[in-house]
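tmp note - Holliday junction resolvasome, helicase subunit
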Amino acid sequence: MKIRSVILAAGLVGFSAMASASSFIGTTNAVGNVLVNMAEALGDSTASTFGSNKVVLDARDDAASFVGSDGQVRGVNLEAALGHIRHQMPELQATDMQLAEAILAL
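out:
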Protein backbone atom coordinates (compact mmCIF):
# COMPACT_ATOMS: atom_id res chain seq x y z
CA MET A 1 0.00 0.00 0.00
CA LYS A 2 1.41 3.38 -0.86
CA ILE A 3 2.29 5.81 1.92
CA ARG A 4 -0.20 8.41 0.68
CA SER A 5 -3.00 5.85 0.76
CA VAL A 6 -2.11 4.94 4.35
CA ILE A 7 -2.02 8.59 5.37
CA LEU A 8 -5.35 9.25 3.68
CA ALA A 9 -6.94 6.20 5.29
CA ALA A 10 -5.58 7.20 8.72
CA GLY A 11 -7.01 10.67 8.20
CA LEU A 12 -10.40 9.27 7.29
CA VAL A 13 -10.42 7.00 10.31
CA GLY A 14 -9.38 9.92 12.51
CA PHE A 15 -12.08 12.09 11.02
CA SER A 16 -14.79 9.52 11.60
CA ALA A 17 -13.65 9.04 15.19
CA MET A 18 -13.76 12.77 15.81
CA ALA A 19 -17.01 13.44 13.93
CA SER A 20 -19.00 13.83 17.11
CA ALA A 21 -16.97 16.85 18.23
CA SER A 22 -18.96 19.92 19.10
CA SER A 23 -17.00 22.19 16.79
CA PHE A 24 -16.03 21.63 13.18
CA ILE A 25 -12.89 23.69 13.75
CA GLY A 26 -11.95 21.52 16.71
CA THR A 27 -12.57 18.43 14.62
CA THR A 28 -10.41 19.61 11.73
CA ASN A 29 -7.61 20.53 14.15
CA ALA A 30 -7.73 17.07 15.71
CA VAL A 31 -7.70 15.40 12.29
CA GLY A 32 -4.82 17.62 11.23
CA ASN A 33 -2.83 16.50 14.26
CA VAL A 34 -3.47 12.84 13.43
CA LEU A 35 -2.34 13.41 9.85
CA VAL A 36 0.79 15.27 10.92
CA ASN A 37 1.79 12.49 13.33
CA MET A 38 1.12 9.80 10.75
CA ALA A 39 2.95 11.69 8.00
CA GLU A 40 5.99 12.12 10.24
CA ALA A 41 5.96 8.45 11.18
CA LEU A 42 5.43 7.14 7.68
CA GLY A 43 7.87 9.58 6.13
CA ASP A 44 10.78 7.93 7.90
CA SER A 45 12.33 5.16 5.82
CA THR A 46 12.26 2.63 8.65
CA ALA A 47 8.74 3.61 9.73
CA SER A 48 7.30 3.07 6.28
CA THR A 49 8.06 -0.63 6.58
CA PHE A 50 6.04 -1.23 9.76
CA GLY A 51 2.94 -1.83 7.64
CA SER A 52 4.44 -5.09 6.39
CA ASN A 53 5.51 -6.25 9.84
CA LYS A 54 3.77 -9.43 11.05
CA VAL A 55 3.46 -8.18 14.64
CA VAL A 56 1.63 -5.07 13.45
CA LEU A 57 -0.56 -6.88 10.94
CA ASP A 58 -1.53 -9.50 13.54
CA ALA A 59 -2.83 -6.69 15.77
CA ARG A 60 -5.58 -5.53 13.40
CA ASP A 61 -8.41 -7.39 15.19
CA ASP A 62 -7.21 -6.14 18.57
CA ALA A 63 -6.91 -2.62 17.15
CA ALA A 64 -10.52 -2.79 15.93
CA SER A 65 -11.66 -3.88 19.40
CA PHE A 66 -9.61 -1.11 21.00
CA VAL A 67 -11.03 1.59 18.73
CA GLY A 68 -14.56 0.21 18.91
CA SER A 69 -14.50 0.14 22.71
CA ASP A 70 -13.03 3.66 22.94
CA GLY A 71 -9.82 2.27 24.40
CA GLN A 72 -11.37 -0.07 26.97
CA VAL A 73 -10.36 -3.39 25.32
CA ARG A 74 -6.61 -3.87 24.96
CA GLY A 75 -5.59 -7.15 23.37
CA VAL A 76 -2.20 -8.83 23.65
CA ASN A 77 -1.47 -8.46 19.92
CA LEU A 78 -2.23 -4.73 20.03
CA GLU A 79 0.05 -4.28 23.04
CA ALA A 80 2.84 -6.09 21.18
CA ALA A 81 2.33 -3.95 18.08
CA LEU A 82 2.26 -0.69 20.04
CA GLY A 83 5.46 -1.68 21.81
CA HIS A 84 7.07 -2.64 18.49
CA ILE A 85 6.09 0.65 16.81
CA ARG A 86 7.23 2.75 19.77
CA HIS A 87 10.54 0.83 19.88
CA GLN A 88 11.10 1.37 16.15
CA MET A 89 10.06 5.04 16.27
CA PRO A 90 10.79 6.46 19.73
CA GLU A 91 10.34 10.02 18.44
CA LEU A 92 6.74 9.35 17.41
CA GLN A 93 4.28 11.51 19.35
CA ALA A 94 1.06 9.54 18.83
CA THR A 95 -1.50 8.22 21.28
CA ASP A 96 -2.40 4.55 21.48
CA MET A 97 -5.73 5.40 19.83
CA GLN A 98 -4.00 7.11 16.90
CA LEU A 99 -1.68 4.16 16.42
CA ALA A 100 -4.57 1.69 16.62
CA GLU A 101 -6.43 3.69 13.96
CA ALA A 102 -3.32 3.68 11.79
CA ILE A 103 -3.01 -0.11 12.19
CA LEU A 104 -6.61 -0.44 11.03
CA ALA A 105 -5.80 1.70 8.00
CA LEU A 106 -3.06 -0.69 6.82
